[in-house]
Amino acid sequence: MERLPRAAIFIIIGVVLFIIVLIKSAVVIDAGQAGVLFKLSDGVELENTYGEGFQIIAPWNDMIIFPVRQLSISDRMNVLSVNGLEVSVDATVWYQPEYDKLPYLYKEKGRDYVNEILSPAISAAARSVVGRYTPEQLYSSKRDVIQAEILDEVRKELESQYVQVNRVLVKDVTLPEKIKEAIERKLRQEQESLEYEFRLTKATKEAERQKIDAEGKAVANQILSASLTDKILTEKGIEATLKLAESPNAKVVVVGSGDSGLPIILGNQ
């Protein structure tokens, strides 16, 4: 087998080295990600955040890639209410690193910034907010208020920390079983009391309505009685007698008059 020319050997070595350098230099950043360049000469490049796509770097440098789309973290925390009772809060937080400040985040907080700063901030905010309320308030009508206040507290904790918190969702607040049962009994009693007051109010209004209706009828009867004289009654009786006499189904027999002076009508078919 003939030996390869020395020039060919150098060419092969050069091609291999070129491929190695190309592999080390080519970086692909996927959608929803961004890169921070670490230079061997002077450390993190703070001026630039590298966006998604194909990037070429020096082979002795390193590209650290972070997800920059919205992410979420869920945690279940045991905190104390305003009266010292332990409450379990199950919360989810949506967050994302600040794109333009990504190099600073990496330089000051490192890759594991979620455990370094985000989780402690969430726990501190939950303790601060839940500690303002009683178990009854936590269990009933304060859920939306608590979410908003935890969000404000987390944002304060992470101010100038290069992490943006978008939303907080409190999925569940778990109280000690005895406290929960006592609160449910109290809520049932309050509901029953409200229902009883409603029925009582309804009955009172109905009684007032009937009283007003009866008083109105009494006044109307008094007015009617005062206006009915004997002459008017006689005239009305004559009118009624004439209408009855005009009926085709009636046979009229007049035999004098009654006590009131009106004719007496007998017989019909």
From TrEMBL:
One Gene Ontology CC term in the entry: membrane
CDD domains: SPFH_prohibitin
Domain Band: from-to ranges: 24-187
Protein name: Peptidase
Regions that span the bilayer: 7-29
Keyword annotations of the record: Membrane, Transmembrane, Transmembrane helix
InterPro entries per the UniProt record, alphabetical: Band_7 (IPR001107), Band_7/SPFH_dom_sf (IPR036013), Prohibitin (IPR000163)
One Pfam family hit: Band_7
